[in-house]
Structures are given as C-alpha cells and as structure tokens.
Specification:
Largest sheet: 5 strands, parallel
Strand content: 15-25%
CATH architecture of the largest domain: 2-Layer Sandwich
CATH superfamily of the largest domain: Tetrapyrrole methylase, C-terminal domain
Strand order of the largest sheet: 3-2-1-4-5
Distance between the termini: 48 Å
CATH topology of the largest domain: Methyltransferase, Cobalt-precorrin-4 Transmethylase, Domain 2
Number of strands: 19
Shape: globular
C-alpha cells in the first residue's frame, strides 16, 4: 500500500495553494468543500479562482512563492507549471513535516487527492496512488451509479441514533446485528422513499422493543427484457439484499447472477399451457415467505404491471398485510423495439402506440380488432407468436392493409436476439425455419420500415 487512506478534518484550517490556474482552482475548490480556509499564492490568479475565494472568505497574495507562505498552514498544494517552484514547495513542506501534494508529480507528494464519491456524510475515495488518475476517475464513475444519493441521508440519520444505540445495545455484536438488519430493511427503505420522519419513528420503536421482530417484505421487481444493463439502480439494490428470489422463466441467467449469491432461488416459470406453479400458489408462496420474516424479491421479466400479473400478486399481499414495494422495469415493447432499431412512435409514421396481449386469461387471442386498426398507430403484441396466423388474418379482415409491415423480435435485448420482418400477409409463413421462438414480441406498423435506417445497435 503506497498511501494510507485517511480522512482529514480541515474545517477552518489554513491550507496553502500555490498556483492560480485551472488546476489550482480545482484543488482549491475541493479544499473549500471540505470547509478549509484557503490561501492562494501566484503571480497571476484566474478570475474564477478569485471569485471562489471571495465567496468562501479565502485569501490570496499576488506574487512569487516563499517559504513564509507556509506559516500557519496545515497542508499545501503546488499546482504551478514551474517545476522548480513545485519542487521547492515540496521540500519546504517536508522540512516542516507538512502534508504536500504536487499535481502530476507523485514522487514529490506526501499525499494525493483521491477521486471522490460524495454522499455526505458518507464519503467514498478511490486512488491509484498517482499512477493512473483517469482509471481512478472511471472507477469513481462506476461507483456513482451504484451508490444511491439517499445513502447520505441514511448515514446522517444513523448518526442521530448512535448514542441511543450504544445505550440500548451496549454489546458490540448485538449493536452490529441491529444495524445490519435495519440498514437492509424497512428503516432504509423508508429513507430511500424520502419518508425520513417515519424512518426515525421506526428506529425508535425498534430500539424500544426488547426483541425487535423482523418483519418480512416483498419486492416486486421488473427485470426488464433480458439485458442486465437495463436494470434500474433500485432493482439491483433490492435484488442484492433479498433472502429469497422468486423468479419467472423470462428472467435471464445474467440477471439472476446479479442477485445476492447466498439467497434461496425459487423458479415459478410459466410457459404457454404449462404452469410450473399456478398463479394462485405463487401468490400464497409470497405471503408465506414474507410471513416468515424473509425479504422476498419477486423477479419478473419486463415490467410487473404490463402483462406481468403484478396487480394480482400485490392484491394478495395487501389483503394479508404484507409490506411490499413495486419497482418498474423496462417493458419488452420498449427494450426489444430499441434494440431492433424500431421507434414505436415517429412524427411521420405513428402518433400513438398500443400494447395488447396475444392471449387473454382463458388463452384466447380474441381482441377488440376494430379498435386496433389505425394507419398511424403502432400495435405491439405480447405473447402472440402461437396465434400469429390467426391475429394476422383478423387484422386484415377488419381493415388493416395486408402489406402493413410486421417485425418479430425473439429474445430481444439478449445476444440471442433474432428479428424477422415481413407483412401481415406473409409474416406467419416466415416463422418456420427462422429460428424464432418464444419469448417473441410482435410489432405491427409503418415504423417497422425505419429498421433498415436505424438498426445500428444490434444487427441480426
């Protein structure tokens, strides 16, 4: 380890910045964010840096650096383009045992500035020990996407209760177990939802209970159409904290691999005319697991409220008094159309889009055909592959043009994606031998004609 990662309290502490350009401005701004009193010395100082100093009650001196500028400072930063000056600042600081950072010169530094993820009071710092600042920034960018902004509020509220926690739970192990439970349970979820007063009340009740009971919860999570990169941040967070994952056939293995590794996985997939677990039994399973105090991730392909029967499941949970959350997912229509290069709406082709299912609750593909016939509307059919020939005939019989373009998108957004394009008149005949199989989305409309121009993302 080249550097010891530490966090310094610089509030109202004098910090010297030698240099007045863009780099000096960035370093001074970081010190000011930490509450430091910043003094800048340089022959020329940019106007933007002078403005920052004025707004933060900092100070400056126009002139060349001298060792006297270090008087009263707790650390220094050299950010000039004069190597001799930078070396002198480093030598003077080391002689006084002051921490010093020389920009882009690791050998002259006694400390380096990390890339920072700021969720104050929670701070995450990443450093490459000056070897590759760009790599550190790239890693920071990844962390930015996985650490919710609400973590700062969460840490702040935990800080409010530290004294009560020590008083109520003097045993360190018991206190650690308490916080692990709360930071992955209802308290944290209330904070994430912006219900901070309720979160404080929840903690107070938990501390008041002699043996706090663990209350189960169900997370109804939309897993999207298949590509794990399309998951929402919230979905990923809940997937990684669930004790049990109840998943469908349409949830891809790469998405399951992102769930908590030691969770129990229960497969309840359904295919046409073959239900591994009937829907009523799935509903009761969720109630039972949550009733046992487990955090249950009900992982569903696409969006749980678009032909996902999520409404039926939360009805059962609500009736049983089970807490639940619903996390929307990218529905197959949006994901598959985008990856196939087909916009669902377009000013010149379609001003509306309609989602329908290819089979109803009783398995019948009977639809309100007349309502589906519109020249400037895109029609998207879920689960319509088996009844494709019947659907095509009915649309033509009710007035849709036989040459209306149709696209079938099989296993959309995954590396196995296949797209077959035709018309209402011939699309059913193109299925045989095409390699198309469920899950397949059917897109009907003039927007399909744009595929040749716009299919840049994932060619067949």
């Amino acid at each position: 380890m080249d550097y010891l990662p530490i966090f310094l309290n610089l509030h109202d502490q004098r910090c010297l910045v030698v240099g007045g350009g863009d780099v000096a401005t960035r370093k001074a701004a970081m010190l000011m964010r930490a509450g430091a009193y910043v003094h800048v010395v340089a022959p020329d100082i940019d106007a933007s840096l002078l403005e920052r100093l004025a707004s933060a009650n900092g100070s400056f001196r126009i002139g060349t650096y001298s060792a006297d500028d270090l008087d009263g400072a707790v650390l220094a930063v050299a950010a000039t383009d004069d190597e001799a000056v930078n070396r002198q600042v480093s030598a003077d600081c080391r002689a006084r045992h002051l921490p010093v950072n020389v920009v882009d010169s690791p050998a002259l530094c006694s400390f380096v500035f990390p890339s920072i993820v700021d969720r104050s009071p929670l701070i995450v710092a990443v450093s490459s020990a000056g070897k590759s600042p760009v790599l550190a920034r790239l890693l920071r960018a990844r962390l930015e996407t996985t650490i919710p902004a609400a973590y700062g509020r969460l840490a702040a509220i935990c800080g409010e209760f530290r004294g009560l926690a020590k008083k109520t739970l003097p045993d360190t192990n018991a206190r650690r177990a308490f916080w692990e439970r709360e930071l992955q349970g209802a308290f944290a979820e209330l904070v994430y939802a912006g219900r901070e007063d309720e979160a404080r009340t929840h903690l107070e009740k938990s501390f008041a209970a002699t043996h706090p009971a663990r209350v189960g919860e169900v997370y109804l999570v939309g897993a999207g159409p298949g590509d794990p990169d399309l998951l929402t941040f919230r979905a990923l967070r809940l997937m990684q904290q669930a004790d049990v994952v109840v998943h469908d056939r349409l949830v891809s293995q790469p998405i399951l691999d992102l769930c908590r590794r030691d969770a129990d996985f229960i497969y309840v997939g359904k295919a046409r005319s073959h239900h591994t677990v009937p829907q009523e039994d799935i509903n009761q399973l969720l109630v039972r697991l949550a009733g046992e105090g487990k955090r249950v991730c009900r992982l569903k392909g696409g969006d749980p409220f678009i032909f996902g029967r999520g409404g039926e499941e939360i009805e059962e949970l609500a009736a049983a008094g089970i807490p639940f959350q619903v996390v929307p997912g990218i529905t197959a229509a949006s994901g598959c159309a985008a990856y196939a290069g087909i916009p669902l709406t377009h000013r010149d082709y379609a001003q509306s889009v309609r989602f329908v299912t290819g089979h109803l609750k009783e398995g019948s593909p009977e639809l309100p055909w007349q309502e589906l016939i519109h020249e400037h509307q895109t029609l998207v059919l879920y689960m319509g592959l088996t009844g494709l020939e019947h659907i095509s005939r009915q649309l033509i019989a009710h007035g849709m043009a036989a040459d209306m373009p149709v696209a079938l998108v099989s296993q959309g957004t995954t590396p196995q994606q296949k797209v077959v394009v035709g018309t209402l008149a011939d699309i059913a005949g193109k299925v045989a031998g095409s390699g198309i199989h469920a899950p397949t989305l059917t897109i009907v409309g003039r927007v399909v004609e744009l595929r040749d121009k716009l299919n840049w993302f994932m060619p067949d």
